[in-house]
Amino acid sequence: xxxxxxxxxxxxxxxxxxxxxxxxxxxxxxxxxxxxxxxxxxxxxxxxxxx
Length: 51
Prior knowledge:
With 51 residues, the chain is mainly α. Helices cover 75% and strands 0% of the residues.
């Protein structure tokens, strides 16, 4: 990644990049929530089976 002024663009390409990054962040958050839920359910099942 370059920090030269030529690499810094403003306008529509920057907006698309931000939207793409936001979409990636939302996908990562959804995956993280799903994985956490799956692990929590697995631990609950193991705890119930251990009684």
